[in-house]
Design a protein that fits this description.
mainly alpha, 5 helices, single chain, rod-shaped, Four Helix Bundle (Hemerythrin (Met), subunit A)
């Protein structure tokens, strides 16, 4: 009878320890998932903020034909490239590719503005729309990434 009590106590102890370990592991995974989601959200927010600041600054730029093709310097000054590199470290390749397209579309918009295209010209409107569409596609991909995390 004493052996049965000892075995029952040992089995109960082992089961209790195992239950605690499983609960700790589940909690650790949930915390890790939340940290990963926060990291992604911060990287996404930083990139979108920089991209928007660059696009808004470009929309107010003066016509200067000698600056056509030099938007990469201006976009770098707004921190877009640094934010994009941060995305490359934390995001899936599909999202990184869409971010690259969004950056290129803002560069095309820059070239339309500094080339002196009027805000009602077809080139300006097409570049503006392309930048908005690329940003919208990127945001959709970001939402999917946050749901997967």
């Amino acid at each position: 009878m004493q052996w049965a009590t000892l075995v029952a106590t040992a089995v109960g102890t082992v089961l209790g320890v195992l239950a605690t370990l499983v609960a700790d592991h589940v909690r650790w995974r949930r915390d890790r998932s939340e940290r990963d989601r926060d990291t992604l959200r911060n990287a996404f927010t930083e990139y979108l903020t920089c991209l928007l600041a660059a696009r808004d600054a470009f929309s107010r730029a003066e016509a200067s034909p000698e600056h056509v093709g030099k938007g990469h310097v201006a976009i770098g000054e707004h921190g877009v490239y640094a934010a994009q590199q941060n995305l490359e470290l934390v995001a899936h390749q599909t999202l990184v590719d869409k971010a690259g397209r969004a950056t290129l579309s803002v560069l095309d918009f820059h070239d339309a503005v500094v080339a002196g295209k009027a805000s009602d010209s077809q080139e300006y409107v097409l570049a503006w729309r392309a930048a908005r569409q690329a940003r919208a596609a990127l945001i959709d991909e970001m939402k999917k990434a946050l749901q997967r995390t």
